[in-house]
């Protein structure tokens, strides 16, 4: 019996991250003063770091993040796909990670 509440990484989520990373530039990233962090903006920053557009340290400095905050978001993308970046789901995913 499968748990329908458990999120899964869809192949299209991974493909989107690879695709956006290939064409992303600093000019296309969210501005440093961004206040509203929707899933797409978070994913763009993760993809940019993966593509080498900016380093982990540069991303953290630019967006006032701790390294752990950034890595946590990256792990959520790896484990749960783009929906893992939803703040409202964070507690659900943390619970799944601990129990599963």
- Percentage beta strand: under 5%
Q: Write down the overall geometry.
A: globular
Output the structural class.
mainly alpha
Order of helices and strands: HHHHH
Q: Using the coordinates shown, work out and report the CATH topology.
A: Arc Repressor Mutant, subunit A
Task: Calculate Rg over CA atoms.
Answer: 14 Å
Description of the molecule:
- By secondary structure, this protein is an all-alpha fold.
- The two termini are 15 Å apart.
- The N terminus is likely disordered.
- 58% of the residues lie in helices and 0% in strands.
- It has one domain: Arc Repressor Mutant, subunit A, CATH 1.10.10.
- The chain is built from 5 helices and no strands.
Which helices and strands appear, and what pairs or packs with what?
Blueprint: H1 11-23, H2 39-51, H3 56-63, H4 67-80, H5 90-99
Short key terms for the protein model shown above:
single chain; 100 residues; mainly alpha; Arc Repressor Mutant, subunit A; 58% helix; 0% strand; disordered N terminus
Question: What is shown here, in short?
Answer:
With 100 residues, this protein is an all-alpha fold. It has helices at 11-23, 39-51, 56-63, 67-80, 90-99. Helix 1 (11-23) crosses helix 2.
């Amino acid at each position: 019996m499968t748990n329908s509440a458990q999120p899964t990484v869809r192949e299209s989520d991974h493909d989107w991250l690879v695709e956006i990373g290939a064409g992303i530039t600093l000019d296309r990233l969210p501005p440093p003063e961004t206040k509203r962090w929707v899933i797409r903006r978070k994913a763009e920053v993760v993809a940019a770091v993966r593509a080498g557009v900016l380093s982990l340290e540069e991303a953290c400095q630019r967006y006032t993040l701790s390294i752990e905050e950034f890595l946590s978001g990256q792990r959520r993308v790896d484990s749960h796909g783009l929906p893992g970046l939803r703040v409202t789901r964070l507690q659900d995913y943390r619970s799944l990670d601990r129990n599963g």
